[in-house]
Design brief:
Blueprint (H helix, E strand, L loop, with lengths): L4 H12 L14 H10 L7 H8 L1 H8 L9 H8 L8 H8 L10 H28 L3 H13 L9 H13 L7 H10 L1 H6 L23 H10 L9 H10 L3 E3 L12 E3 L9 E3 L2 E3 L4 H13 L1 H15 L6 H13 L4 H9 L17 H12 L7 H9 L17 H4 L2 H15 L8 E2 L15 E2 L8 H7 L6 H8 L6 H6 L8
Antiparallel strand pairs: 1-2, 3-4, 5-6
Helix pairs in contact: 1-21, 6-9, 7-9, 7-18, 9-10, 10-14, 12-13, 15-16, 16-17, 18-21
Length: 511
């Protein structure tokens, strides 16, 4: 992709007004170090470039591939621990949300109280994700959380999923980001958030009536998306008969209702009364008559398929290398997936040591999504984030609100989706605000014990002083990586807007 530096610089200069001459200097660091940080993380924080230079590229790769070996900062752990709904399971979240007894119609005040609680749960999920993305030392894990959540997308705007998206990420995504794909697939398939979002909780054998005596029949929605998006891909070679067979296989999979007994702490519930026990033929495999185990066998078939291996490998290569990833790289990742039984860590390790990943033409070849841009800008400033609301607000403006992609295919990570003049203007406004210290990212709640409610708009905030970002420190943090054209544009401008120009530069829009 060809990017013209003058486009962004001129937009930002117009936005900020007249300028006066100044000076600029830079001593670029090894582009490989910057490339590695920009792809395995959401961009450098102060000191990261120097740290990777000191420890070496290989050690950094292996460290990030083993996130449990990286201790988190106590400040981040403390903030997350104060989000009291974050670690509730789906059953606990329903109990927290519900204000009336089962079968009783809620009053207006009870309905408002429930909505307030539901919004609080979602606010805390958003806050947790943004705190971890901006501040966690386990950056590759955070990158893979974004990748896999998009892959197995669930939209919070669908009723109960407002309560469950945070739990879904904590329980079905985060523990498996670098593990076996089959385990990740199974965790998402069983989670109530996915069962509800793609309607499989309504999927029943077509000969079985519901509690009211109505025969709703099969719901094919999840079965179709499970193959089209999660595993085989849109051109994966399956037929409508395979969709029907898989829907029958997954009939009866759902979640427990209030008062319904289940041994599964996450709330998954298999209802044999709604299941089609017959023998099925799925993707050429005969699945013998049975209950819940039929679904597990189907997931095994999907996870082990060479078609799935290629689909997943293509998406990983597209995310980490280029919008149109090299065929040889995709082939190599596919082989590694199949040789390691879908071990995601091994697939990534192969990618990070590939010729294609280190090919200079793929450096700065990926245009940052709104999420990647916002997180990288905050990280570059080194600010200690207390209030994530300004970041969340930008994502709303840029049409990428967290947990709110309405289509099951998730947000795209290619330039054609996000590169447009209106979006650029909004990014530049954000760059100017954060550079001038005008975003209340370090704003501390007046009542620190109620930190979990940050962003709900229910409490006054204790304003922190506005401290502009130091341009020389910012340049050092980013490894002096600006082009000569951008450096000259910055040098001819007022020192007061140097940091804004850096964060609004074409180089900073890329990773």
């Amino acid at each position: 992709m060809t990017v013209k530096p003058k486009y962004w610089v001129l937009l930002l200069l117009i936005l900020l007004g007249p300028i006066a001459p100044s000076n600029a200097a830079s001593t670029p660091v090894d582009p490989k170090v910057l490339h590695l940080i920009n792809r395995l993380s959401f961009g450098p924080r102060p000191g990261d470039v120097q740290r990777v230079e000191s420890m070496g590229v290989e050690r950094y790769i292996q460290e990030q591939l083993s996130p449990d070996s990286i201790p988190e900062a106590e400040s981040l752990t403390s903030k997350l621990n104060q989000l009291d709904t974050l670690h509730l399971n789906p059953v606990g979240l329903l109990e927290y949300y519900t204000t009336t007894l089962p079968g009783k119609k809620p009053t207006e005040s009870e309905r408002k109280a429930a909505n307030k609680r539901g919004q609080e749960v979602l606010d805390q999920a958003v806050q947790a994700r943004l705190l971890e993305a901006t501040s966690s030392k386990r950056q590759l894990q955070e990158v893979m959380v974004e990748f896999w959540y998009n892959h197995f997308n669930v939209d919070a705007n669908k009723d109960r999923d407002r309560l469950w998206v945070g739990a879904y990420e904590q329980q079905a995504i985060r523990p498996y980001t670098l593990g076996r794909f089959r385990d990740l697939l199974g965790a998402t398939a069983h989670h109530p958030a996915m069962q509800y979002y793609l309607d499989n909780f309504q999927n029943r054998a077509d000969s079985r009536p519901d509690a009211q005596g109505n025969i709703r029949g099969l719901n094919e929605n999840y079965a179709r998306e499970l193959m089209e998006l999660h595993t085989l891909g849109v051109d994966g070679g399956y037929t409508q008969q395979d969709v029907i067979a898989l829907a029958k296989i997954l009939s009866g999979w759902g979640f427990s209702r209030p008062g319904q007994q289940t041994d599964n702490i996450l709330g998954f519930y298999f209802n044999p009364k709604l299941h089609d026990f017959s023998e099925k033929v799925f993707l050429g495999h005969t699945i013998k008559s049975g209950g819940e185990a039929q679904g597990e066998e189907a997931l095994d078939i999907l996870a082990q398929s060479p078609v799935t291996a290629r689909h997943i490998s293509y998406q990983i290569a597209q995310y980490f290398v280029s919008d149109l990833p090299p065929t040889d790289l995709v082939n190599n990742l596919t082989h590694r997936y199949l040789a390691t039984d879908g071990n995601i860590r091994e697939v990534l390790n192969t990618l990070f040591h590939s010729e294609e990943f280190w090919d200079a033409k793929n450096f700065n070849a990926k245009f940052k999504t709104p999420y990647q841009y916002a997180i990288s800008a905050v990280r570059a400033t080194g600010v200690e984030v207390e209030n994530t609301q300004p970041i969340s607000h930008l994502l709303q403006q840029l049409a990428m609100p967290l947990y709110s992609c309405q289509t099951p295919d998730g947000y795209k990570n290619t330039a054609d989706v996000w590169l447009n003049p209106d979006a650029m203007n909004r990014r530049l406004s954000f760059a100017a605000a954060i550079a001038n210290g005008n975003l209340p990212l370090s704003t501390i709640p007046a009542n620190i014990e109620q930190r979990g409610q940050i962003g709900t708009g229910q409490r006054p905030l204790q304003k922190s002083p506005s401290i502009p970002v130091d341009a020389s420190q910012l340049t050092n943090t980013l490894g002096n990586s600006l082009s000569k054209k951008t450096q000259n544009a910055i040098a001819s401008s007022s020192p007061q807007i140097h940091s804004a120009l850096i964060l609004g530069s074409p180089e900073f829009m890329l990773r």
